[in-house]
Amino acid sequence: MTDVYPELRSACRFYPAIDNHAHPILTDEHRDRFAFEGLISEANGSALTVDAVNTVACLRAVPELASILKANPTWTAVKETRSKMDYQELCDRFMNPTVTGIQCMLLDDGLGGVEEFAQDYAMHDKFATSPTKRIVRVEIVAEGILKPLFKPFLEELSFDAASVLESFNSSFKASVTDSANDGHVAGFKSIACYRTGLDVSTADSMESIMKSLEDVLTMYRETGTLRLAHKVFNDHIVRMTLEISGECGKPVQFHTGLGDNDITLNRSSPAHLQPVIKAFPKTLFVLLHSSYPFTREAGYLTAVYPNVYLDFGEVFPFVSGAGQRSIIRQVLELSPTNKILWSTDGHWWPESYYLGSIQARQALYTVLSETVASGELLEKDAIAIVQNSLFHNANKLYNLSLDPDLNICKRK
């Protein structure tokens, strides 16, 4: 059967892509550190190991992975085959840029466990044709600064909150500013969605910030673990980041929507960010993960605020094919097509990059070809949407100054 839109299909399949949000893969030594079911779900416990494998998203992924592994199309066979394969060969099969079409990766290397179990961000250059860039996770930066500041007070009941806060503010601003001036850093990321919710306040009193800082120390003393999950202080960190970002022009990514059960779902909608979006008009906001299931709310924000962009990632492969196509349709309902960005949210396993790439490309073609067939869009405009969302929008937003490697998928 003749392909009705061969140029559009070619653009979807082969146009080079900038993966604007991903995470490092595991080292060979730690390749089995986490349950492989995390490839297709962010659930925990039996919801991951028992339930997730029964989703349509997983059932779809099985034959896609099995075809590359030359394994039987069952989840068990896929797991067994990959576990016996040389790790470098496994990575090459699923992450070679001739397969994924990824030209450049922007890696958030602040994910818990990265330092212990994952490859350094620069090691990922072999899986792309342009150098990898970092996304700096600001809550992790803040925790690293606080630990030595708290050390003198761990065994004492007294606490000079004002002095510690002053030292923290100075060090945090210096660190974020250094990152802003670092050519290896493309932007910043906040996980406020996980820690305290996206209803970030636009201002808090100095007294309330110091009280919140004391609460952080108290929990650190009690648990032995420093984890920033105290709303007033977390919001303070976000605001300082937004201010510096607005001055330097490097975007701030926000986890929105889809995540594990550590998220309070009704506080993960990007609609909660509207006050700070308005308060920091010079700051470039990137709403990650399609904001699913709040995609339409995210689309609205991109349409009415010039400083808001929407990433349609992570839903590949976490959501069924029908769901993925629905999400892309919702993105295109209102979002300006010069403000949508693609990502894999690849992490831990090389297969996550593969599925995130091929499924996104398939979904884009299906949705856009249907839109062209309905007479609502010219094919040339659909092709431009593909090229912009996969490459040019991110290239401009993150100031990468890359030329598209048009031969990336022709080197097989």
TrEMBL record:
<dbReference type="Pfam" id="PF04909">
    <property type="entry name" value="Amidohydro_2"/>
</dbReference>
<dbReference type="InterPro" id="IPR006680">
    <property type="entry name" value="Amidohydro-rel"/>
</dbReference>
<dbReference type="GO" id="GO:0016787">
    <property type="term" value="F:hydrolase activity"/>
</dbReference>
<dbReference type="InterPro" id="IPR032466">
    <property type="entry name" value="Metal_Hydrolase"/>
</dbReference>
<protein>
    <submittedName>
        <fullName>CBM1 domain-containing protein</fullName>
    </submittedName>
</protein>
<feature type="domain" description="Amidohydrolase-related">
    <location>
        <begin position="235"/>
        <end position="376"/>
    </location>
</feature>
